[in-house]
Amino acid sequence: MINNLLFAIDDIFSNYKKFISGFLQIMVTFIFFAIVASKVKNLCLISRIEKSMVIDNEVYTFMNSVPTDIGAVINDENKRDRLVKLWKEVTSEDVLKAYGVKIYVADNESKIAIDDEKFAKSNIAKKNSLHINNLANKLEVTTDFFDIFRLKGNFIPEYMSVFSEGKESGVTPAILGNLYSKIYDIGDTFKDATGREYRIIGFLKKDSYYLYPSGFSGEPVDLGGYVIIPSQLDTDEATNVCRLIDGIYVISQTSDYCDFVQRRMAEENLFTLDVRTFTYELESGIEYLKDGIKVNGFLGGIVCLFAFMGLVGNLVQYISDYKREFAINMLCGTDKTGIIIRIYAQVLFLVILGIVPTVILFGKSVELLCTIVFAFVFSLGIMAYPLVLIKRFTIEEMLKRGTD
């Protein structure tokens, strides 16, 4: 067994050019497979989230169709004042009641710099690619957000009332993603870079997601690394109102309210808003993912086919070149199983190296697990024909063919 493995290592070094070529092909194949697996997973997640959402009516969102208008408004004092006044008008209780609508906020436009030793020593920020200055993802929401997406977790009993009232208190309540439960406990506090203090009132369950339609690209947002706090945007500031336009969601039976807001913004010459439905955004996201699956699946399939044919061809050539050596080994006591182990060890080593880039890109994930299963099946497929060749040849045939 050990000798066969040593022979396999020696064979790899002896044929290193073919090994490197095979590694590159198999690496690209596995990456394409992981990408397709990721998009299939997101497609399933969207379907699951959509079914679990507690929404009796349609959800509408706003999107500024002329981004340059934001700069024009922010840099004009008169327009800033008109925007603040108009926003208070259209979001007043009387107007919302008149149109029979409810609104919730989910603003993820900013990050939070956590000034805490536990966080600094953890790998959460690095996992979110925000390791500079201990930045973490932040989501500012209203309490309806948890009900709509049916977010569950380990919370203090009165978390809803504490969360809704927290923005008025000195210590801001925070609900953290599952990743933070490894370094914090409920009741712990931490501060951000500005000195503002936060108290943890709960953790979300693992695999908690939400959909962000205004920036929708078909990818559900994993809340595992998020800090969720009450929406604290001051609507007396025009910059905050601009953020709210992208972060507010209107629940209504009709688009009348959204049409009203759209019309008033145009009348005041502030923004040209597009009104979009959650259903439309979901369908767009699903189509985006399906297109991604088709394109990546097609390209990955071509790469996989060439890699498979190339590797099988290399193995057949390798067996042909080493038949005499195999025959001598068998005369010295090695059986065909040992020869097969020698060959499969090379294939397995190649497959393991090919998976490494996928591990780096996707980490511990469903995509990686699926890729490992695919890699195992792929390696067995590569070995199928060479295995038949080895089983079929006798020692006499190997010696004869090895001298041809």
Tell me what the structure shows:
The protein has 404 residues and is α+β, with helices and mostly antiparallel strands. It folds into two domains: 157 residues, no CATH class; 234 residues, no CATH class. 59% of the residues lie in helices and 16% in strands. It has 16 helices and 13 strands. The strands form two sheets. Strands 3-4-11-6-8-7 form a six-stranded mixed beta barrel. Strands 9-10 form a two-stranded antiparallel sheet. A hairpin with a 4-residue loop joins strand 7 and strand 8. Helix 2 packs antiparallel against helix 12 and helix 2 crosses helix 14. It is elongated. The mean pLDDT is 80.
Tally the helices.
Answer: 16
Strands in their spatial order, largest beta sheet? 3-4-11-6-8-7
Number of extended strands:
13
**Approximate helicity band:** 55-70%
Overall body shape:
elongated
Question: Any descriptors?
Answer:
404 residues; alpha+beta; 2 domains; two-stranded antiparallel sheet; 13 strands
List the topology elements.
Elements (H helix, E strand, L loop, with lengths): L1 H13 L1 H37 L5 E7 L3 H7 L2 H14 L2 H7 L2 E6 L3 E5 L1 H5 L2 H4 L7 E7 L2 H5 L4 E3 L3 H8 L5 E5 L12 E4 L4 E8 L4 E2 L10 E2 L3 E5 L7 H10 E5 L3 H12 L5 E5 H44 L1 H9 L4 H27 L3 H27 L2 H9 L1
Parallel strand pairs: 4-11, 6-8
Antiparallel strand pairs: 1-12, 1-13, 2-4, 2-12, 3-4, 3-7, 5-8, 6-11, 7-8, 9-10
Helix pairs in contact: 1-14, 2-12, 2-14, 2-15, 12-15, 13-16, 14-15
Quick structural summary:
This protein is 59% helix and 16% strand. It is α+β, with helices and mostly antiparallel strands and 404 residues long.
